Amino acid sequence: MPDLSELQSNAVRELVTRSPLLVDLGERFAAAGHQLHLVGGSVRDALLGRLGDDLDLTTDAHPEQVLALVEGWAEATWDVGIAFGTVGLQKRGTRVEITTYRSEAYDRTSRKPEVAYGESLEDDLVRRDFAMNALALALPDWKAPGAFVDLFGGMDDLAAGIIRTPGRPEDSFDDDPLRMLRAARFASQLGFTVAPEVVVAMTERAERISIVSAERIRAELEKLLLGAHPRTGLTLLVETGLAAYVLPELPALQLEIDEHHQHKDVYEHTLQVLERAIALEDGEPDLVLRLAALLHDIGKPATRRHEPGGGVSFHHHEVKGAHLARKRLKALTFGKDVVEAVFLLTEMHLRFHGYGQPGTSPWTDAAVRRYVHDAGDQLERLHKLTRSDCTTRNRRRAERLSAAYDDLEERIAALAEQEELRAIRPDLDGGEIMELLGLEPGPLVGQAYRHLLAVRMERGPLPHDEAVAELRAWHRTQLA
């Protein structure tokens, strides 16, 4: 973890690039007799050397005064958050949100705050979720002695890599249970440790997360999964009991393993698959791949069977798991594209295991075509998920699986050079089918199309005359 001097150097380096804008804005407020502070996550990220293009500020000025102060200076303003005391603006590509000091009292049955303007910066900072987010920097002269405000030890927490609340965590989480998920999210994003007293409060109040909307939960889970250390955040959710309310399929993977019915630890295997999949990502974090890695085996608890002789089976867990994944992701309000992509990847993640294994027949070209066709635009993710799913400690078996998948990818590439493997279509389209057979649009046209698609899968591209002959032969059988 960085020391305090390094944190301060990071902040200076990050803020220098924003200095003209922040100083100019601070001077406008000071001239009107108002205070202005860079605050919260913006200060935290500056200290960590990762300040983005969105800046958060707080002030004693009320929203209508803020709008008057930035009129003619900001390139654009918006007031969608004005009911909560927030005014947004943009200047030279940087977005700024300025919020009037707030002092909130929560309805603890709904987590909706009664928003009231605070009287001081301290009123505003004490209501924030974590000490590392309760930091402030006075403007315009942010380099002056005393400009940096740290009332709750946030700097020490950043240097130590610890997540604590400004006050009692019990009070903080009673006010806003979503903060418990935010603790796990920050642990994932920053690799920080959540303070023991915070973990205790999360565990004791896990059930309170039920009053939070699915949309807010989904947003935090998404950020957690896209963090640099998702295992850390997920483990915290499971250990505190929060996962039982927001993603119950994950702790359900902690299947009992006894001495007579031994099998792989599915929960630990899942976290390993997630980490292996992350290692195969190209550049930016891939939400769909990470969700598929996390959920690919969630059908196992429902399909586990103890076999004679002490074995354990999970027949068709990929099918069960795909439907469970779809149901959970819909409930969490993930978009349709994400839901259906994860469904497909979960459903197909075992398909490869019939390829090149001892005692199995070699895949035909038709089988390879079907694999590519069924995977569709998820083929690259399926490659990564399938490779990640091999967590065996048996070196020879791992090498055999890797070599088999190498061979499959080579066959896919070879076939792709010969034909449009990624967009397999019948050799005749619907219009040609209707013209050749003298048909009007209807079910028979669809049946003919599907027959030609199956032929295309099995035999590859056909010359036009052969495709026509195949269509006519099929049609005769339908009329017989």
Structural features:
480 residues, alpha+beta, Beta Polymerase, domain 2, Hydrophobic Seed Protein, 4 domains, 7-stranded mixed beta sheet, two-stranded antiparallel ribbon, 13 strands, 52% helix, elongated
Short description:
The chain has 480 residues and is α+β, with helices and mostly antiparallel strands.
Task: Describe this structure as you would to a colleague.
The protein has 23 helices and 13 strands. With 480 residues, the protein is an alpha+beta fold. It has 4 domains: 4-160, Beta Polymerase, domain 2 (2-Layer Sandwich), CATH 3.30.460.10; 162-247, Hydrophobic Seed Protein, CATH 1.10.110.30; 275-424, no CATH class; 425-479. The strands form 4 sheets. Strands 3-4-5-2-1-8-9 form a 7-stranded mixed β-sheet. Strands 6-7 form a two-stranded antiparallel ribbon. The protein has a two-stranded parallel sheet with strand order 10-11. It is elongated, with a radius of gyration of 29 Å. The termini are far apart.
